Amino acid sequence: MTDIGVPHRSSSTLTRVERLGAHSHVRGLGLDDGLEARRSSQGLVGQLRARKAAGVIANMIKDGTIAGRGVLIAGAPGTGKTAIARGMAKTLGDETPFASMAASEIYSMEMSKTEALTQAFRQAIGVRIKEETEIIEGEVVEIEIDRPVGAMAKAHAKTGKLTMKTTDMETVYDLGTKMIEAISKAKVNAGDVISIDKASGRVTKLGRSFSKSRDYDAMGASTKFVACPEGELQKRQEVVHTVSLHEIDVINSRAQGYLALFAGDTGEIRAEVREQIDNRVSEWKEEGKAEIIPGVLFIDEVHMLDIECFSFLNRALENELAPILVVATNRGITKIRGTDYRSPHGIPVDLLERLLIIHTQPYDERESKAILEIRCEEEDVDMSDDAKDLLCKIACETSLRYAIQLISAASLRASKRKSAKVDIDDVSKVYGMFLDVKRSTQFMIDNQAEFVFNEAAMVN
Protein backbone atom coordinates (compact mmCIF):
# COMPACT_ATOMS: atom_id res chain seq x y z
CA MET A 1 0.00 0.00 0.00
CA THR A 2 1.29 3.43 -0.88
CA ASP A 3 1.93 6.01 1.81
CA ILE A 4 -1.02 8.19 2.72
CA GLY A 5 -0.34 11.93 2.65
CA VAL A 6 -1.61 14.00 5.56
CA PRO A 7 -1.78 17.83 5.62
CA HIS A 8 0.29 19.40 8.38
CA ARG A 9 -1.13 22.31 10.34
CA SER A 10 1.08 25.36 10.77
CA SER A 11 1.69 26.49 14.33
CA SER A 12 1.47 30.16 13.34
CA THR A 13 -1.65 32.07 14.30
CA LEU A 14 -3.87 33.13 11.43
CA THR A 15 -5.87 36.34 11.51
CA ARG A 16 -9.36 35.73 10.17
CA VAL A 17 -11.33 38.62 8.68
CA GLU A 18 -15.07 38.02 8.71
CA ARG A 19 -17.79 40.14 7.19
CA LEU A 20 -20.83 41.05 9.25
CA GLY A 21 -23.23 38.20 8.50
CA ALA A 22 -26.79 37.35 9.48
CA HIS A 23 -25.57 35.19 12.38
CA SER A 24 -22.22 36.81 13.21
CA HIS A 25 -23.63 37.84 16.61
CA VAL A 26 -24.09 34.21 17.72
CA ARG A 27 -21.37 33.16 20.21
CA GLY A 28 -22.90 29.90 21.51
CA LEU A 29 -26.14 28.33 22.71
CA GLY A 30 -26.40 30.49 25.84
CA LEU A 31 -26.72 27.63 28.36
CA ASP A 32 -25.63 27.46 31.98
CA ASP A 33 -23.73 24.55 33.57
CA GLY A 34 -26.99 22.67 34.09
CA LEU A 35 -27.81 22.95 30.36
CA GLU A 36 -30.67 25.34 31.15
CA ALA A 37 -31.10 28.03 28.48
CA ARG A 38 -30.80 31.64 29.61
CA ARG A 39 -33.46 33.94 28.19
CA SER A 40 -30.84 36.03 26.39
CA SER A 41 -27.21 34.93 26.22
CA GLN A 42 -24.36 34.58 23.69
CA GLY A 43 -26.42 36.27 20.97
CA LEU A 44 -29.45 33.95 21.23
CA VAL A 45 -32.84 35.01 22.58
CA GLY A 46 -35.84 32.83 23.47
CA GLN A 47 -36.30 29.31 22.01
CA LEU A 48 -35.47 27.92 25.46
CA ARG A 49 -36.60 24.34 24.83
CA ALA A 50 -34.97 24.15 21.39
CA ARG A 51 -31.66 25.54 22.69
CA LYS A 52 -31.67 23.14 25.65
CA ALA A 53 -32.28 20.20 23.32
CA ALA A 54 -29.46 21.39 21.04
CA GLY A 55 -27.21 21.71 24.10
CA VAL A 56 -27.90 18.10 25.10
CA ILE A 57 -26.95 16.96 21.59
CA ALA A 58 -23.78 19.13 21.64
CA ASN A 59 -22.72 17.66 24.99
CA MET A 60 -23.20 14.11 23.73
CA ILE A 61 -21.11 14.95 20.66
CA LYS A 62 -18.34 16.37 22.87
CA ASP A 63 -18.35 13.25 25.02
CA GLY A 64 -18.26 11.04 21.92
CA THR A 65 -21.33 9.09 23.08
CA ILE A 66 -23.24 9.41 19.80
CA ALA A 67 -22.30 9.14 16.15
CA GLY A 68 -24.24 8.43 13.01
CA ARG A 69 -27.37 10.09 14.41
CA GLY A 70 -29.62 12.71 12.86
CA VAL A 71 -31.30 15.85 14.22
CA LEU A 72 -34.00 17.90 12.49
CA ILE A 73 -34.56 21.54 13.46
CA ALA A 74 -38.01 22.46 12.14
CA GLY A 75 -39.93 25.70 12.42
CA ALA A 76 -41.42 28.66 10.61
CA PRO A 77 -39.15 31.08 8.70
CA GLY A 78 -37.28 33.52 10.93
CA THR A 79 -37.48 31.46 14.14
CA GLY A 80 -33.73 30.96 14.62
CA LYS A 81 -33.10 27.48 13.19
CA THR A 82 -29.80 28.38 11.51
CA ALA A 83 -28.81 30.49 14.53
CA ILE A 84 -29.21 27.45 16.80
CA ALA A 85 -27.05 25.36 14.44
CA ARG A 86 -24.39 28.10 14.49
CA GLY A 87 -24.62 28.16 18.28
CA MET A 88 -23.96 24.41 18.31
CA ALA A 89 -20.86 24.94 16.15
CA LYS A 90 -19.53 27.63 18.54
CA THR A 91 -20.27 25.44 21.57
CA LEU A 92 -18.43 22.46 20.11
CA GLY A 93 -15.34 24.60 19.44
CA ASP A 94 -12.54 24.20 16.90
CA GLU A 95 -11.62 20.67 17.99
CA THR A 96 -14.87 19.18 16.65
CA PRO A 97 -15.25 19.31 12.84
CA PHE A 98 -18.35 21.24 11.72
CA ALA A 99 -19.25 21.28 8.02
CA SER A 100 -22.12 23.42 6.74
CA MET A 101 -23.91 23.50 3.40
CA ALA A 102 -27.20 24.46 1.79
CA ALA A 103 -29.09 21.58 0.18
CA SER A 104 -29.21 23.33 -3.20
CA GLU A 105 -25.38 23.31 -3.39
CA ILE A 106 -25.35 19.66 -4.46
CA TYR A 107 -27.02 20.36 -7.81
CA SER A 108 -23.88 20.93 -9.84
CA MET A 109 -22.66 19.79 -13.25
CA GLU A 110 -19.14 19.20 -11.93
CA MET A 111 -19.92 16.18 -9.76
CA SER A 112 -22.81 13.87 -8.92
CA LYS A 113 -25.18 14.58 -6.04
CA THR A 114 -24.02 11.58 -4.05
CA GLU A 115 -20.36 12.60 -4.52
CA ALA A 116 -21.12 16.10 -3.19
CA LEU A 117 -22.84 14.60 -0.14
CA THR A 118 -20.01 12.11 0.40
CA GLN A 119 -17.45 14.93 0.40
CA ALA A 120 -19.59 16.91 2.85
CA PHE A 121 -19.87 13.86 5.15
CA ARG A 122 -16.10 13.33 5.13
CA GLN A 123 -15.46 17.02 5.83
CA ALA A 124 -17.37 16.49 9.07
CA ILE A 125 -15.19 13.56 10.21
CA GLY A 126 -11.90 14.50 11.85
CA VAL A 127 -8.77 12.43 12.34
CA ARG A 128 -6.55 13.43 15.27
CA ILE A 129 -3.09 12.17 14.31
CA LYS A 130 -0.31 11.78 16.87
CA GLU A 131 3.30 11.93 15.73
CA GLU A 132 6.60 11.97 17.57
CA THR A 133 9.18 14.43 16.32
CA GLU A 134 12.67 15.44 17.43
CA ILE A 135 13.12 19.08 18.41
CA ILE A 136 15.92 21.27 19.67
CA GLU A 137 14.66 23.65 22.36
CA GLY A 138 16.71 26.13 24.32
CA GLU A 139 17.85 29.73 24.83
CA VAL A 140 19.93 31.37 22.10
CA VAL A 141 23.29 32.48 23.49
CA GLU A 142 24.93 33.68 20.27
CA ILE A 143 24.36 33.69 16.50
CA GLU A 144 27.35 33.98 14.16
CA ILE A 145 26.68 34.24 10.41
CA ASP A 146 29.52 34.39 7.86
CA ARG A 147 28.43 36.31 4.77
CA PRO A 148 30.87 36.03 1.80
CA VAL A 149 31.73 39.36 0.17
CA GLY A 150 33.31 40.36 -3.11
CA ALA A 151 32.97 38.85 -6.59
CA MET A 152 32.56 35.27 -5.32
CA ALA A 153 29.79 36.11 -2.81
CA LYS A 154 27.01 34.51 -4.89
CA ALA A 155 28.99 31.35 -5.53
CA HIS A 156 29.56 30.63 -1.85
CA ALA A 157 26.69 29.79 0.47
CA LYS A 158 26.26 31.53 3.79
CA THR A 159 27.39 29.58 6.85
CA GLY A 160 27.18 30.20 10.54
CA LYS A 161 27.09 28.90 14.09
CA LEU A 162 24.27 28.88 16.63
CA THR A 163 25.01 28.57 20.34
CA MET A 164 22.09 27.35 22.45
CA LYS A 165 21.77 26.40 26.10
CA THR A 166 19.46 24.96 28.70
CA THR A 167 19.86 25.12 32.47
CA ASP A 168 21.96 21.94 32.26
CA MET A 169 24.04 22.21 29.06
CA GLU A 170 25.27 24.39 26.20
CA THR A 171 25.98 23.34 22.58
CA VAL A 172 27.19 24.95 19.34
CA TYR A 173 25.41 23.97 16.08
CA ASP A 174 26.63 24.56 12.53
CA LEU A 175 24.11 26.38 10.33
CA GLY A 176 23.44 25.90 6.63
CA THR A 177 21.81 28.35 4.22
CA LYS A 178 18.24 27.13 4.84
CA MET A 179 18.55 27.30 8.62
CA ILE A 180 20.07 30.78 8.41
CA GLU A 181 17.10 31.91 6.32
CA ALA A 182 14.63 30.32 8.77
CA ILE A 183 16.29 32.01 11.76
CA SER A 184 16.37 35.37 9.96
CA LYS A 185 12.70 35.03 8.98
CA ALA A 186 11.75 34.30 12.60
CA LYS A 187 13.83 37.36 13.70
CA VAL A 188 15.69 35.35 16.31
CA ASN A 189 18.15 37.24 18.54
CA ALA A 190 20.40 36.30 21.43
CA GLY A 191 18.27 35.83 24.52
CA ASP A 192 15.29 34.35 22.67
CA VAL A 193 13.96 30.91 23.60
CA ILE A 194 13.32 28.97 20.40
CA SER A 195 12.26 25.54 19.21
CA ILE A 196 13.63 23.92 16.03
CA ASP A 197 11.88 20.96 14.38
CA LYS A 198 14.69 18.73 13.12
CA ALA A 199 12.53 17.07 10.45
CA SER A 200 11.15 20.20 8.78
CA GLY A 201 13.66 22.82 9.95
CA ARG A 202 10.82 25.05 11.18
CA VAL A 203 11.92 27.61 13.76
CA THR A 204 9.40 28.73 16.39
CA LYS A 205 10.11 31.61 18.75
CA LEU A 206 8.65 30.71 22.18
CA GLY A 207 9.47 34.02 23.86
CA ARG A 208 12.22 36.05 25.53
CA SER A 209 14.31 34.57 28.35
CA PHE A 210 13.67 35.87 31.87
CA SER A 211 17.41 36.54 32.11
CA LYS A 212 16.93 39.34 29.56
CA SER A 213 13.95 40.94 31.31
CA ARG A 214 16.06 43.93 32.36
CA ASP A 215 16.99 44.79 28.76
CA TYR A 216 14.35 47.48 28.46
CA ASP A 217 15.47 48.53 24.97
CA ALA A 218 14.69 45.05 23.64
CA MET A 219 11.21 44.96 25.15
CA GLY A 220 7.96 45.70 23.40
CA ALA A 221 4.34 45.79 24.50
CA SER A 222 3.80 42.24 23.29
CA THR A 223 7.05 40.75 24.61
CA LYS A 224 6.49 37.38 26.25
CA PHE A 225 9.01 36.16 28.82
CA VAL A 226 9.60 32.45 29.38
CA ALA A 227 11.95 30.39 31.54
CA CYS A 228 15.08 28.83 30.10
CA PRO A 229 14.30 25.16 29.28
CA GLU A 230 15.66 22.40 31.50
CA GLY A 231 17.38 19.12 30.66
CA GLU A 232 18.71 18.10 27.23
CA LEU A 233 18.64 20.42 24.22
CA GLN A 234 17.43 17.64 21.93
CA LYS A 235 14.21 15.97 22.98
CA ARG A 236 11.31 14.00 21.52
CA GLN A 237 7.92 15.69 21.48
CA GLU A 238 4.47 14.37 20.60
CA VAL A 239 2.78 16.53 17.98
CA VAL A 240 -0.99 16.29 17.51
CA HIS A 241 -2.79 17.72 14.49
CA THR A 242 -6.39 17.30 13.41
CA VAL A 243 -7.43 17.02 9.76
CA SER A 244 -10.63 15.92 8.06
CA LEU A 245 -11.00 12.74 6.03
CA HIS A 246 -11.90 14.90 3.02
CA GLU A 247 -8.58 16.77 3.22
CA ILE A 248 -6.71 13.45 3.22
CA ASP A 249 -8.85 12.31 0.26
CA VAL A 250 -7.99 15.41 -1.79
CA ILE A 251 -4.27 15.25 -1.08
CA ASN A 252 -4.04 11.61 -2.15
CA SER A 253 -6.29 11.87 -5.22
CA ARG A 254 -4.79 14.91 -6.97
CA ALA A 255 -1.42 15.42 -8.64
CA GLN A 256 -1.12 18.87 -7.06
CA GLY A 257 -1.73 17.35 -3.61
CA TYR A 258 -1.95 19.92 -0.81
CA LEU A 259 -2.45 22.81 -3.26
CA ALA A 260 -5.77 21.28 -4.37
CA LEU A 261 -7.23 22.26 -0.98
CA PHE A 262 -6.62 25.93 -1.77
CA ALA A 263 -7.60 25.73 -5.45
CA GLY A 264 -10.98 24.22 -4.54
CA ASP A 265 -10.79 21.99 -7.62
CA THR A 266 -11.43 18.72 -5.81
CA GLY A 267 -13.56 17.04 -8.48
CA GLU A 268 -14.82 13.49 -7.98
CA ILE A 269 -12.68 11.23 -5.81
CA ARG A 270 -12.45 7.55 -6.72
CA ALA A 271 -13.92 5.00 -4.30
CA GLU A 272 -10.61 3.05 -4.38
CA VAL A 273 -8.75 6.06 -2.94
CA ARG A 274 -11.27 6.46 -0.12
CA GLU A 275 -11.17 2.75 0.67
CA GLN A 276 -7.37 2.81 0.85
CA ILE A 277 -7.45 5.85 3.16
CA ASP A 278 -10.12 4.30 5.42
CA ASN A 279 -7.99 1.15 5.77
CA ARG A 280 -4.88 3.14 6.62
CA VAL A 281 -6.75 5.31 9.15
CA SER A 282 -8.14 2.13 10.76
CA GLU A 283 -4.56 0.80 11.06
CA TRP A 284 -3.42 4.05 12.67
CA LYS A 285 -6.34 3.82 15.09
CA GLU A 286 -5.45 0.24 16.11
CA GLU A 287 -1.79 1.25 16.57
CA GLY A 288 -2.81 4.21 18.75
CA LYS A 289 -1.43 6.74 16.27
CA ALA A 290 -4.79 8.28 15.37
CA GLU A 291 -8.22 8.96 16.82
CA ILE A 292 -11.48 9.37 14.90
CA ILE A 293 -13.51 12.48 15.81
CA PRO A 294 -17.13 12.34 14.56
CA GLY A 295 -18.16 15.91 13.83
CA VAL A 296 -21.34 17.61 12.65
CA LEU A 297 -22.71 18.06 9.13
CA PHE A 298 -25.36 20.80 8.96
CA ILE A 299 -27.61 20.87 5.88
CA ASP A 300 -29.87 23.93 5.69
CA GLU A 301 -33.11 23.94 3.64
CA VAL A 302 -33.00 20.12 3.59
CA HIS A 303 -36.36 19.95 1.75
CA MET A 304 -34.44 20.95 -1.41
CA LEU A 305 -32.87 17.46 -1.52
CA ASP A 306 -34.56 14.90 -3.77
CA ILE A 307 -35.53 11.27 -3.14
CA GLU A 308 -32.13 10.00 -4.35
CA CYS A 309 -30.29 12.16 -1.83
CA PHE A 310 -32.60 11.10 1.01
CA SER A 311 -31.96 7.45 0.15
CA PHE A 312 -28.21 8.15 0.23
CA LEU A 313 -28.51 9.84 3.67
CA ASN A 314 -30.40 6.82 5.00
CA ARG A 315 -27.55 4.55 3.97
CA ALA A 316 -24.75 6.95 4.95
CA LEU A 317 -25.99 7.27 8.55
CA GLU A 318 -25.46 3.51 8.97
CA ASN A 319 -21.79 3.80 8.04
CA GLU A 320 -19.18 3.25 10.74
CA LEU A 321 -17.53 6.58 9.87
CA ALA A 322 -20.64 8.76 10.02
CA PRO A 323 -20.86 12.23 11.61
CA ILE A 324 -23.87 13.73 13.41
CA LEU A 325 -26.32 14.95 10.75
CA VAL A 326 -28.17 18.17 11.64
CA VAL A 327 -30.76 19.38 9.10
CA ALA A 328 -33.12 22.35 9.11
CA THR A 329 -36.30 23.14 7.20
CA ASN A 330 -39.20 25.60 7.29
CA ARG A 331 -41.60 23.44 5.24
CA GLY A 332 -44.81 21.83 6.49
CA ILE A 333 -46.49 18.89 4.79
CA THR A 334 -45.27 19.11 1.20
CA LYS A 335 -44.11 17.02 -1.74
CA ILE A 336 -40.86 15.10 -1.55
CA ARG A 337 -38.74 16.49 -4.36
CA GLY A 338 -38.55 14.03 -7.26
CA THR A 339 -41.83 12.29 -6.35
CA ASP A 340 -45.57 13.00 -6.19
CA TYR A 341 -45.78 11.88 -2.56
CA ARG A 342 -46.43 14.34 0.27
CA SER A 343 -44.66 14.01 3.60
CA PRO A 344 -44.04 16.12 6.74
CA HIS A 345 -41.27 18.67 6.02
CA GLY A 346 -40.81 17.19 2.52
CA ILE A 347 -38.67 14.39 4.03
CA PRO A 348 -39.42 10.66 3.54
CA VAL A 349 -40.96 9.02 6.61
CA ASP A 350 -38.24 6.34 6.83
CA LEU A 351 -35.60 9.07 7.23
CA LEU A 352 -37.79 11.10 9.62
CA GLU A 353 -37.92 8.07 11.94
CA ARG A 354 -34.13 8.25 12.27
CA LEU A 355 -34.16 11.92 13.27
CA LEU A 356 -34.53 13.58 16.66
CA ILE A 357 -36.84 16.52 15.93
CA ILE A 358 -36.42 19.94 17.57
CA HIS A 359 -39.19 22.51 16.97
CA THR A 360 -38.71 26.28 17.10
CA GLN A 361 -41.53 28.69 18.02
CA PRO A 362 -42.28 32.22 16.68
CA TYR A 363 -40.74 35.03 18.75
CA ASP A 364 -42.98 37.21 20.91
CA GLU A 365 -42.72 41.01 21.02
CA ARG A 366 -40.26 41.14 23.92
CA GLU A 367 -37.94 38.59 22.30
CA SER A 368 -38.10 40.39 18.94
CA LYS A 369 -37.07 43.65 20.59
CA ALA A 370 -34.14 41.93 22.36
CA ILE A 371 -32.94 40.47 19.04
CA LEU A 372 -33.18 43.88 17.36
CA GLU A 373 -31.11 45.43 20.16
CA ILE A 374 -28.45 42.71 19.73
CA ARG A 375 -28.31 43.38 15.97
CA CYS A 376 -28.03 47.14 16.56
CA GLU A 377 -25.07 46.50 18.85
CA GLU A 378 -23.50 44.05 16.36
CA GLU A 379 -23.85 46.54 13.49
CA ASP A 380 -22.63 49.40 15.74
CA VAL A 381 -25.83 51.40 15.27
CA ASP A 382 -26.92 53.84 17.99
CA MET A 383 -30.74 53.91 17.89
CA SER A 384 -33.20 55.85 20.05
CA ASP A 385 -35.73 54.01 22.19
CA ASP A 386 -38.65 55.33 20.12
CA ALA A 387 -37.01 54.08 16.93
CA LYS A 388 -36.47 50.64 18.53
CA ASP A 389 -40.14 50.51 19.56
CA LEU A 390 -41.24 51.33 16.02
CA LEU A 391 -38.82 48.75 14.57
CA CYS A 392 -40.19 46.14 17.00
CA LYS A 393 -43.76 46.96 15.91
CA ILE A 394 -42.72 46.55 12.27
CA ALA A 395 -41.13 43.17 13.11
CA CYS A 396 -44.35 41.95 14.73
CA GLU A 397 -46.55 43.12 11.84
CA THR A 398 -44.26 41.99 9.00
CA SER A 399 -41.26 39.78 9.84
CA LEU A 400 -38.19 39.91 12.06
CA ARG A 401 -35.86 39.46 9.07
CA TYR A 402 -37.36 42.49 7.31
CA ALA A 403 -36.98 44.64 10.44
CA ILE A 404 -33.35 43.60 10.89
CA GLN A 405 -32.57 44.65 7.31
CA LEU A 406 -33.98 48.14 8.01
CA ILE A 407 -31.33 48.75 10.71
CA SER A 408 -28.43 49.42 8.34
CA ALA A 409 -30.66 51.37 5.92
CA ALA A 410 -31.92 53.62 8.75
CA SER A 411 -28.34 54.08 9.98
CA LEU A 412 -27.25 55.20 6.50
CA ARG A 413 -30.07 57.76 6.33
CA ALA A 414 -29.11 59.10 9.77
CA SER A 415 -25.50 59.51 8.67
CA LYS A 416 -26.61 61.43 5.57
CA ARG A 417 -28.30 64.03 7.78
CA LYS A 418 -25.12 64.20 9.92
CA SER A 419 -26.67 62.47 12.95
CA ALA A 420 -24.90 59.85 15.08
CA LYS A 421 -28.19 58.41 16.38
CA VAL A 422 -31.01 56.80 14.41
CA ASP A 423 -34.40 58.26 15.36
CA ILE A 424 -38.00 57.32 14.62
CA ASP A 425 -38.10 59.46 11.46
CA ASP A 426 -35.20 57.51 9.91
CA VAL A 427 -36.97 54.18 10.50
CA SER A 428 -40.24 55.58 9.07
CA LYS A 429 -38.51 56.83 5.94
CA VAL A 430 -36.76 53.54 5.11
CA TYR A 431 -39.98 51.65 5.93
CA GLY A 432 -41.63 53.69 3.20
CA MET A 433 -38.76 53.15 0.76
CA PHE A 434 -38.54 49.36 1.03
CA LEU A 435 -41.66 47.19 0.94
CA ASP A 436 -42.19 44.04 2.96
CA VAL A 437 -43.74 40.90 1.44
CA LYS A 438 -47.34 41.76 2.40
CA ARG A 439 -47.28 45.28 0.94
CA SER A 440 -45.45 44.09 -2.17
CA THR A 441 -48.06 41.37 -2.74
CA GLN A 442 -50.90 43.84 -2.25
CA PHE A 443 -49.27 46.23 -4.74
CA MET A 444 -49.13 43.49 -7.36
CA ILE A 445 -52.76 42.55 -6.77
CA ASP A 446 -53.86 46.18 -7.08
CA ASN A 447 -51.86 46.65 -10.28
CA GLN A 448 -52.14 43.17 -11.77
CA ALA A 449 -53.23 44.45 -15.17
CA GLU A 450 -49.84 46.14 -15.64
CA PHE A 451 -47.82 42.96 -15.01
CA VAL A 452 -46.97 40.24 -17.53
CA PHE A 453 -48.21 36.68 -16.90
CA ASN A 454 -49.85 37.61 -13.61
CA GLU A 455 -51.58 34.89 -11.60
CA ALA A 456 -53.34 37.04 -9.01
CA ALA A 457 -56.22 34.60 -8.74
CA MET A 458 -53.83 31.89 -7.54
CA VAL A 459 -52.31 34.25 -4.96
CA ASN A 460 -55.77 35.08 -3.61
Explain this structure to me?
The protein is built from 15 helices and 17 strands. It has 460 residues and is of the alpha/beta class. The chain folds into three domains: 150 residues, P-loop containing nucleotide triphosphate hydrolases (Rossmann fold, 3-Layer(aba) Sandwich), CATH 3.40.50.300; 109 residues, OB fold (Dihydrolipoamide Acetyltransferase, E2P) (Beta Barrel), CATH 2.40.50; 82 residues, Helicase, Ruva Protein, domain 3 (Orthogonal Bundle), CATH 1.10.8. Strands 5, 6, 7, 8, 9, 10, 11 and 12 form an eight-stranded mixed β-sheet that branches. Helix 3 runs parallel beside helix 8. The radius of gyration is 29 Å and the shape is globular.
**Oligomeric state of this protein:** single chain
The number of distinct β-strands equals 17
Number of domains: 3
Strand residues, percent: 15-25%
Please render the helix and strand layout as text.
Layout: E1 40-41, E2 44-45, H1 48-63, E3 70-74, H2 81-92, E4 98-102, H3 113-123, E5 125-146, E6 159-165, E7 170-175, H4 177-185, E8 192-197, E9 203-209, E10 225-226, E11 234-244, H5 245-253, H6 259-263, H7 271-287, E12 290-294, E13 296-300, H8 307-316, E14 324-329, E15 333-335, E16 342-344, H9 349-352, E17 355-359, H10 365-378, H11 385-397, H12 400-416, H13 424-433, H14 437-446, H15 456-459
Parallel strand pairs: 3-14, 3-17, 4-13, 9-10, 13-14
Antiparallel strand pairs: 1-2, 5-6, 5-8, 5-11, 5-12, 6-7, 8-9, 15-16
Helix pairs in contact: 1-2, 3-8, 10-11, 10-12, 11-12, 11-13, 12-13
